[in-house]
Amino acid sequence: MNITKAFADYMTLQGYGTFGSTLFIGGVPLDAPDTCWWIVSSGGNTLAKNGTGEKQKNYLISVFYRSTDQEEVYNKLEQFETLFNNNNCLEINGYDIIETEATSYPTDQDIDNEDRTVGLVQITLTVYL
Questions:
Q1: N-to-C CA span, the chain
Q2: How do the pLDDT tens digits run along the chain, 129 residues long?
Q3: In 1-129, where does DSSP find H-type helix?
Q4: Are 7 and 92 in contact (CB under 8 A)?
Q5: Which of 11, 20, 81, 99 has its CA 20 to 30 A from that of 59?
Q6: Domains identified in the chain and CATH numbers
């Protein structure tokens, strides 16, 4: 399982969407509901490598949320960001997470529908391989 799908499974377990109906990878289908999450991620970049071959890599995962309720978007994204900016250990199936960091960005009007608001939180996962 790749890290994007593993992260989507983690989000589902935490109550942030249901994969395939309100949580998507790569973008949102045309028939998706107004209120939904989606994940866009990039490959990891190596931070360090020790003599026996183990690596530390950073993965950048962008998580978007949209809704017709602007206040809900703000509140959900603040709650989501807090999940990754604390001292708790994050457990993602198949990955040894060393550290997490989240950056929250301002919400904005959805370019596809002026009645929806969309927001973004970028998560950096440092993984030990």
A1: 14
A2: 799 999 999 999 999 999 999 999 999 999 999 999 999 998 787 777 888 888 899 999 999 999 999 999 999 999 999 999 887 778 899 999 999 999 988 887 777 777 899 999 999 999 988
A3: 3-13, 70-84
A4: yes
A5: 20
A6: 3-25+34-128 (3.30.2000.30)
Burial level of 42, CB count in 10 A (0-12/13-18/19+)? Answer: exposed
Question: What separation in angstroms does the CA of 48 have from each of 10, 32, 44, 60, 127?
Answer: 26, 40, 12, 16, 11
Tokens of 115: 């009645």
Residue 61 near residue 16 (C-beta atoms within 8 A): no
Residue 57 tokens, joined:
């890599």
Q: For residue 10, what are its two tokens?
A: 């983690």
Closest CA to 110 of 102, 97, 119: 119
Contact 113, 39 (CB under 8 A): no
